[in-house]
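Fold this sequence, please.
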Amino acid sequence: MILKNRLFTRKPPKRNAKSYYIFCEGNKREYQYFCYFKELDSKINVVVIRPSPHDDNSPMGLFQKSEHYIVRSASNPSPKFEVLDIDEVWFVIDTDKWGTKIAQLRNKCSSFPNWYIAQSNPCFEVWFYYHFKKVPPSFEGKEVSKKWKQFIDNEIIRGGFDARKHPFLLRTAIDNAALNFQHNDANEPEIGCTEMHLLGQSIYPLVKDTLEHV
């Protein structure tokens, strides 16, 4: 598949735009991906928060950062962001090495309306895969994040995933990821599955007109 870089006229969000506050575990590929949707349409405001080099990017580290940025309290009277009832907060995280710590994050999020997790197993590159492929992935070592990066960059996408143009295939990725999604006994995505389609399903109606008319 050949895709040219899609050049959109960037549109600052309207005052009543829905905001997405996305806390990423990774500080590069996830950040670049979501920045594609910033000012893509005036109906949406995308705020991507990535860890600094020495930040705690564990599940609970991300949650503590979200508290500092969003949750108003006696010890935090002026959080950085004012989150409205229509807005959503998302944690984009890999299964990778975290194990039961992600369950702790899910438990914390359950206390807040419109706070969600988009977990990929084992890594965010699973989401990249579904921008191009409909069938479940099958290759040796697919439970290892490093193997996924090699698989995506060397076998699935010539030159690797390009965040300047490939997010244009959001609708395809949503459909393919949803079609192949399964939970395991721990209520987490099975290997080769991702919850990113849930975040995509929320975002897509707000950017649909832009993506479909370019």
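The first strand starts at residue 18 and ends at 24. The chain is about 35% helix and 15% strand.
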